[in-house]
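With this grant's support, we have paired protein sequences with backbone structure tokens. One protein thus recorded is set out beneath this paragraph:

_____
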Amino acid sequence: MKLLVTGPTGFLGYHLCKSLVKTDLEIVAISRNPPPLERQVNSKKISYISLSEINIDRFIKSSNFKGVIHCATNYGRDDKTLDTLQTNLTFPLSILLSSIKANVSFFINTDTILDKRVNSYSLSKNQFLDWLYYFQNKICCLNLSLEHFYGPGDSDGKFTSFIIRELINNVETIRLTQGKQKRDFIYIADVVSAFECIIKNINNFKKGSIHELQIGSGENTSIYDFVNLAKEITLNYNTMLDFGAIPYRENEVMESEVDLKLISSLGWKPKVSLKKGLELTIAGELKS
């Protein structure tokens, strides 16, 4: 089976490609720019394509892809709204339209559990989901809403990575909200195994409706408890955790709710506990 994966240089895309090449799948990874060597998977089962090198429509039509996995994401942290829309809406829509024309069997979209009112990132992701619904009769569409995944080497802009690196560096103070909001934290290896499980069972899904799956650990942890656990594992006795120093975001979700019934019905379950995941993440960060 030949798959097109977008966003191979991102945290999720890189780890997904790294794992998929160990199967019998053939992967073509597409990104805006050629990936740096440290973000390339060393395998004959994967090839890298830059957007500047191709016409998307002609490329997909001539490549005989079975499916697409859309991992490319712009979190909108630099307030460049048009860039966020390009990555999260315009780009995947062009891939989706070309896939429909080329009779690609399925399109797997990586989504967020965040409410669309939280920021431009969540709004743009929600808008693309509307387009998936619009084209649900043309191609088999799966929408994977991911809880807060983490692991070593993730972006500095992610909350989990920021906290861990600040604690490792023994900063004087970390300013936080009260930390009462609860989140489902899931280790990157468990997220990847969920994708692999879905691909293995892809024939269970047909076009004609959107198949919405949520991916998480199934356990909610308060931000307060998460940060304190990370502090304990890093053996940090110096940093002051200033809970309540900053307000909650507007439209903040105080407790995420994840429904794992559909993904669990395929035989998938997470294996890495939060404590073990943090230990692996911190050990990886200390090595880098």
About this structure: The longest helix spans residues 81-101.
